[in-house]
Amino acid sequence: MNTRLLMTLRVTVAAPQNIAGVPHGTRRTVPITGGDFDGPWLRGSVLPGGSGDWLLLRADGVIELDFRATLRTDDGALISMRSFGLRHGPPEVMEALARGEAVDPAVYYFRTTPRFETAHPAYVFLNHLITVASGDRRAEGPIYTIHELL
Amino acid sequence: MNARPLMRLRLTTDEIGPTPHGRLSIFPITGGSFEGERLRGIVLGGADWVTAAADRTFELDLRLTLETDDSALIYMTFTGVRDDTNHYFRTLPRFETAAPKYAFLNRLLAVGIGEAHRNGPVHTIEEIL
Description:
By secondary structure, chain A is mainly beta.
């Protein structure tokens, strides 16, 4: 798998909304309050309102992530981002993360697959990219290192 | 990003053709096979819902059922992009199974590199580590 860095994305999150037991597990919605991103070809900020991560805590201990955010580049383009992801690890690591403790991201699995949509001519290349991201779950919000699949 | 080989998947397809939505074509998957170090078997069936974009790229949306050589059933879905102009054919496979032996598939994300062949596409799929 050949990849190259697309961007590093940092988001800040508000208190999660625990919807609790739903038919397929435990639903938890995490509002995104802001953030920023930068990479070789684009940089900008994350817009609050409509940005969030919809988590499903499955019975097998895996957390499914359904992330949606609107990005605004420093030259004013709006980009819609969506990604499906998975997060899991040893129970004690997942419990430490849930308590907001700093944990080395190498000891748990946190991977996502972002897709992008935009109408801005400078960034239409994003519309057809398949990308993969590794996440680092911090108390203030996750950091994603996103690579383009070449 | 690090990855390791998961499987090579060969599909045979047919075509229903354009639907009333115009840009959507449905390709039934008539069969196929897959093999990797940790699993091998056949494709029982499925389909690919292909949406043509205005810039002549295609968005793929596949659903398949795989059967391993030891009779486990695996539900596989993937989206992807096919851009023949730029020779870019990449996918994001996901798996679900109830078979304990293959439960590792429920916990991984994967990427695929597709190649077009006369009888149908061949996907080389790697697990994202």
